[in-house]
């Protein structure tokens, strides 16, 4: 058995167990991601999902979501445009913010041993940050020829 993960257009993260030999699949977990995702990776141990969204942030989620907690009815939040303040301020109940870029992240990779995350954005910025402490930037990779 191998795990396949993908994001649907409705911003739902799906973790699917796929048996390539028998061509069967079973969806194990499905969860809503607050922002549109464009890159989805699994950690080397397969227990953590890393998601880069269209707003330049990388979040981590446990593979198996925590048990649902009964929530108290919340008061309505203020809105900024069409987004709620909670979403604008990275309110993500089950995700942990790892790092953020100023523009869309085009790709990222965890190094062997998962000590660092290398991320690249649409503005051609490549950054090496410590994982899981993405705020601690190790270096920038710049390739200017001018």
Summary?
It is built from one helix and 13 strands.
The secondary-structure element order is EEEEEEEEHEEEEE
Q: Tell me what the CATH architecture of the domain at 34-63 and 78-141 is.
A: Beta Barrel
Main β-sheet description: 4 strands, antiparallel
How do the strands of the widest beta sheet line up side by side? 4-5-6-9
Describe the global form: globular
The count of β-strands is 13
Per CATH, the class of the domain at 34-63 and 78-141 reads Mainly Beta
Main location: nucleus
GO biological process, one term: RNA (guanine-N7)-methylation
GO cellular component, one term: nucleus
Keywords: Nucleus, Repeat, WD repeat
Q: How are the elements arranged and paired?
A:
Blueprint: E1 2-7, E2 12-19, E3 24-32, E4 37-42, E5 48-53, E6 57-62, E7 79-80, E8 83-84, H1 85-88, E9 96-100, E10 105-110, E11 116-121, E12 126-130, E13 137-141
Antiparallel strand pairs: 1-2, 2-3, 4-5, 5-6, 6-9, 7-8, 10-11, 11-12, 12-13
GO cellular component, one term: tRNA methyltransferase complex
InterPro entries: Trm82, WD40_repeat_dom_sf
Subcellular location: Nucleus
Explain what you see.
The chain has 146 residues and is an all-beta fold. The chain has a domain at 34-63 and 78-141: Thrombin, subunit H, CATH 2.40.10. It has one helix and 13 strands, in the order ββββββββαβββββ. It has one helix spanning 85-88; strands spanning 2-7, 12-19, 24-32, 37-42, 48-53, 57-62, 79-80, 83-84, 96-100, 105-110, 116-121, 126-130, 137-141. A hairpin with a 4-residue loop joins β2 (12-19) and β3 (24-32). The chain is globular. It starts with a strand and ends in a 5-residue tail after the last strand.
